Amino acid sequence: MRLLASCLAAVLSLAPAVAADPLRLVPKEANLVLKVVKPRQLVEAVTQLDAYRDYQSLPQVKAVLDSTASRRFFQLVEHAETKLGAKWPELVDALAGGGMALGTVAGKDPAPALLVLQGTDEAKAAAAFKLFVQMLNDELARQSGTIDKPATAETGTHRGADTVRIGDDFFAARLGAVTLLSNKKDAVEKALALAVEPKDADSVLGHATLPTAKKLLGGDPLAWLWFDLAVAKQDKGFKDFLETARTQAFLLFAVGGTVDAVRRADFLTAGVYQTAAGLKLSAKLPAKRADLPPEFALHVPMTADVPGTLPLLAPPGVLYSQSLYLDIGSFWTKRKSILGESELKDLEKAEKDISKLLPNTTFGKLLEMSGPHHRFVAVERGTNHYQTRPDFPLPEMAVVTSMRDPQFGQVMNTTLRTAAALAGLQFGLKMTEEKHDGIDIVSYRFAENKPLDADPTNVRFNFVPSFAVVNGFLVVASSPQLLKDLIPEVKKPADPAGCSPAVWRNRVYGAGAAAGLKARPEAVITDAVLGQGIGLDEAKKQVEQLAKFLGTLGTLDVEVEHGAEAFRFEVEWKQKRD
Questions:
Q1: Do 446 and 460 meet the contact criterion of CB atoms below 8 Å apart?
Q2: How far apart are CA 436 and CA 479, in angstroms?
Q3: Which residues pair with 101 in a beta bridge?
């Protein structure tokens, strides 16, 4: 038994020591903290990306990197590397290998802030702090020629720590392998007190929701954040906003579900993760889906058999695609129990006014027949629909909305035709009808021989408005070709694998942005020629380089989900793979 214990002790003695949590030095008053768990890995997660390397090679970026401020920054880094005898990655490990923590008190003005660097090498931390003070003095001396009363760096000691102070706005200290930076003397003194006599109850680690937030976030983040919402909710203006968003129609439609999640949550937590394909930011609120009030059936399906969002549309040349759950019909039927008296009165008056323009129906009935799933897509293919070119070319766009009642499609067909007939008197619209893949498509073209004072920049010539009813969906597009491209996607049954519990999803495509730039480079070329004073050939070359870079960026996805245990907001970037 003694032999086993001796072997275990020997193994443990060889294992690297685990650095203390830098959060232990953030005072309990902090209600917002950001912890970088692995500083070096976080930096390298960005700097080792192919996209980062390609970004630096762009002419526009090279000009910034060659600026005086950038050159001075890199000179300072090289100076520190020379004096400390290590390259920056090793210095990051030595000075902050145990993590970095930033704590502040949100809501105060000015807000106190404390940055804690937990190093792993005390000797390097001491040398770096000494060099830091020297560089501060050199910079203050450099500025003394332009300032009447230049600030001075006052050095000293406190609780065994080396300290430095500049005026009343900058304080720093170094104790062992720990470095502290703050805009408040009191914050540094409290941190040093916690370093000498550790007490979780006096630090932010003693907050009840902090470990809960880390557990809810999950995974292995490179950096994560915690914000105590109890403080924000003490502000009367913020409390009023949370309540208003439940009864004010615009706020209810725009951000109602998200605001309600904030109202029910005790804290917000967020983390940055490295993935196999890129990076991800995930934010969560501990607001359970089961606790959603009935009025938020507007934003969230209340039964498990209804998907949050349908598959994203991806026709050729796609630049942006969105899928959204918004049950306007449910909102309309429940409006009397949701809206305040004044809001309800105004809404019903507007509904009656609009209904006067609709043939054989009311606006309210139209809403009730509409479905909850909506998709939007924008594509860029450099298509010109008219001989006359608009001053500001726009991508082709389309909206696809579901319907509860097939009559919705019939009513919208009649309504859109009537609206176009009325608009034709002013805009000179010409209607055409055609059948494609068994679907009837109605399109309208603007007259090019009819000037329009209300449209001096010819924006209308971006559009050939088209619509069709496709297998239970109303499709409205800015061109008949885009509508035709969407018909096969809309026709096929929704693949469960492409559906999602998320109630809002969108994706931006780097390849689509590259195609758009290649198709319409004029604005970027003009900006380069005028802004940089270069020739036309060089400007065109820059456009080619920028388009190539955009094509390598892959996709950026954003999702919102009301999960069983938490509300989730997520942004994920996936770089293009060869």
A1: yes
A2: 14
A3: 35, 116
Structure tokens at 434: 């055609």
H or E stretch covering 163? strand 161-166
- Global pTM reads 0.87
Burial of 160 (0-12, 13-18, 19+ CB in 10 A): exposed
Contact in structure between 151 and 140 (CB atoms under 8 Å): yes
DSSP helix/strand/coil, 224: strand
The first and second tokens of residue 411, run together, are 């009513």
Q: For residue 303, how many other CB atoms are within 10 A of its CB?
A: 6
- Per-residue pLDDT at 60: 73
AA letter at 142: R
Sheet strands (E) in 424-512: 430-436, 439-445, 466-470, 473-477, 504-509
> In which element (H, E) is residue 576 found?
none
Residue that is written with structure tokens 């995930």 in the block: 282
196 within 8 A of 203, measured Cβ to Cβ: no
The encoded tokens of residue 159 equal 């609780």
Helix (H) or strand (E) holding 216: helix 209-217
Please give the single-letter amino acid code of residue 108. K
Q: How far, in Å, are 49, 98, 213, 222 from residue 274 at the CA level? A: 11, 19, 19, 7
Rounded to whole angstroms, how far apart are CA atoms 433 and 466?
A: 10
Question: Tokens standing for 485?
Answer: 């491209």
State the Cα torsion 149-150-151-155 to the nearest 10°.
-110
With a cut of 70, list the residues of the chain below it in pLDDT.
1-19, 145-151, 425, 577-578
Sign of the alpha-carbon torsion through 237, 238, 243, 244: positive
Residue 7 has a pLDDT of 37
| Whole-angstrom distance, CA of residue 101 vs CA of residue 82 | 27
Q: How many helices (H) and strands (E) does the chain have?
A: 21, 20
Residue where the block lists tokens 């870079």: 549
| 41 neighbors 222 (Cβ within 8 angstroms) | yes
Residue of 35, 33, 3, 55 whose CA lies nearest to 510? 55
- Comparing CA positions, the residue from 247, 277, 284 lying closest to residue 262 is 284
At 245 the pLDDT is: 82
Of 319, 387, 298, 286, which is closest to residue 555 (Cα–Cα)? 319
445, HSE (Cβ side, Cα atoms, 13 Å): 12
